[in-house]
C-alpha cells in the first residue's frame, strides 16, 4: 500500500523523516511538500480548495495506481485530506488525521478549539524569527522523549536546510486554520479513519476524542497522553505501532 504523508503549517516533508526508516517494507512512503513549503517554496496557495486540488493532483500522478492509497495528514495538512475524502475525489482506502481538528477555532457550542489569537501569535513569531520559532516549536514537541535530543538535532537540520515558506502560503494557511469548519461534513467520509491526538497539545484539545464519534462513523481514536502537537516525533514507536495496527486491520487484510 502507499501512504501519502502531509505536513503541517510552516513545516515541510522533512518533519516525517524520523518515521520513514522505522516503517515496515509493505508501506510505500510518499512525503510531499505543500505549495509554498520546502522544495516548493516558489509556489503558493490561497485557500483550502486550492490545497485539496493540489493534493488530489499529486496523488493521481503517483505511479502504481493499483496500490491501496492512504493519507496521513498532520494538523493543517489533515484538512485537505478531509476535504478530498468528503468530496470522494480519490479511491482512498483509509485516512489518518494527526493532531488535527475539523474546526480549529473555538466558538459557541464548540469548546474543542482554541482562540484564533493563538495562531496569530505563532504566525507573527514565524515572520519575525522563522528559524528560532521552528527550533522552539520542535523542542516543545520532543520534550520528555527518551530519544528527543538526537531526534531534535537531526530534525532541525533537515527542516531548516529547506527554504523558508512562501509568505502567501503562510498567510493562507493561517486563514484556513481560523476559518475552516468541516464538522458537519465529516459524516460523509466513508473510509476507515484513525484520529491521533496528544494529551498535552496546546493547539488541539485532546477532549476532541470524546465527540469525534458524534461527528463521523466509528472513527478509531488514539490519545497519546504525554504528547504535544507532534506525537509522531515524541512517541515515534507508539505512533508507528498504532499506524501499523490500523493499516493492518483496515487496509492490508482487505487488499
Provide a quick synopsis of the model.
Helix content is 40%, strand content 13%. It is α/β, with parallel strands linked by helices and 255 residues long. Helix 3 links the parallel strand 3 and strand 4.
Give an overview of the whole structure:
The chain is an alpha/beta fold. The protein has helices spanning 17-20, 48-61, 78-86, 116-128, 130-142, 148-160, 167-179, 212-215, 231-234, 236-250; strands at 2-6, 28-32, 69-74, 92-98, 193-198, 220-224. A six-stranded parallel sheet has the order 2-1-3-4-5-6, sandwiched between helices. Helix 8 links the parallel strand 5 (193-198) and strand 6. The longest helix has 15 residues, at 236-250. The protein is globular, with a radius of gyration of 17 Å. The mean pLDDT is 90.
Unreliable runs: none
Order of helices and strands: EHEHEHEHHHHEHEHH
The CATH architecture would be: 3-Layer(aba) Sandwich
What is the helix content?
A: 40-55%
Strand order of the largest sheet: 2-1-3-4-5-6
Report the radius of gyration as a whole number of Å. 17 Å
CATH hierarchy, class? Alpha Beta
CATH topology value: Rossmann fold
Strand content: 5-15%
- Describe the sheet with the most strands: 6 strands, parallel
- Mean of the pLDDT scores? 90
Q: For the record, what is the CATH homologous superfamily label?
A: Alpha/Beta hydrolase fold, catalytic domain
Number of strands: 6
Q: What overall geometry do the principal axes of the alpha carbons give? A: globular
Q: Termini, distance in Å?
A: 9 Å
How many domains make up the 3D coordinates? 1
* Structural class by secondary-structure content: alpha/beta
Question: Count of helical segments?
Answer: 10
Amino acid at each position: 500500500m502507499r501512504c501519502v504523508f502531509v505536513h503541517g503549517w510552516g513545516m515541510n516533508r522533512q518533519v516525517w523523516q524520523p518515521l520513514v526508516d522505522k516503517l515496515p517494507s509493505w508501506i510505500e512512503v510518499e512525503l510531499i511538500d505543500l505549495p509554498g513549503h520546502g522544495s516548493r517554496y516558489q509556489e503558493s496557495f490561497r485557500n483550502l480548495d486550492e490545497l485539496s486540488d493540489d493534493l488530489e493532483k499529486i496523488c493521481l500522478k503517483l505511479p502504481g495506481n493499483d496500490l491501496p492509497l492512504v493519507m496521513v495528514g498532520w494538523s493543517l495538512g489533515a484538512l485537505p485530506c478531509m476535504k478530498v475524502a468528503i468530496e470522494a475525489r480519490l479511491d482512498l482506502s483509509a485516512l489518518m488525521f494527526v493532531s488535527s481538528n475539523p474546526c480549529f477555532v473555538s466558538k459557541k457550542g464548540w469548546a474543542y478549539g482554541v482562540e484564533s489569537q493563538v495562531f496569530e501569535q505563532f504566525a507573527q513569531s514565524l515572520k519575525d524569527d522563522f528559524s528560532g520559532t521552528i527550533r522552539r516549536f520542535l523542542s516543545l514537541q520532543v520534550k520528555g522523549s527518551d530519544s528527543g535530543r538526537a531526534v531534535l538535532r537531526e530534525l532541525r537540520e533537515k527542516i531548516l536546510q529547506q527554504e523558508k515558506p512562501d509568505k502567501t502560503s503562510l498567510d493562507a494557511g493561517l486563514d484556513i486554520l481560523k476559518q475552516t469548519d468541516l464538522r458537519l461534513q465529516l459524516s460523509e467520509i466513508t473510509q476507515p479513519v484513525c484520529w491521533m491526538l496528544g494529551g498535552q497539545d496546546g493547539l488541539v484539545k485532546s477532549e476532541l476524542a470524546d465527540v469525534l464519534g458524534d461527528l463521523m462513523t466509528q472513527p478509531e481514536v488514539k490519545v497519546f497522553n504525554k504528547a504535544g502537537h507532534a506525537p509522531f516525533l515524541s512517541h515515534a514507536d507508539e505512533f508507528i505501532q498504532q499506524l501499523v495496527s490500523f493499516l493492518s486491520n483496515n487496509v492490508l487484510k482487505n487488499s
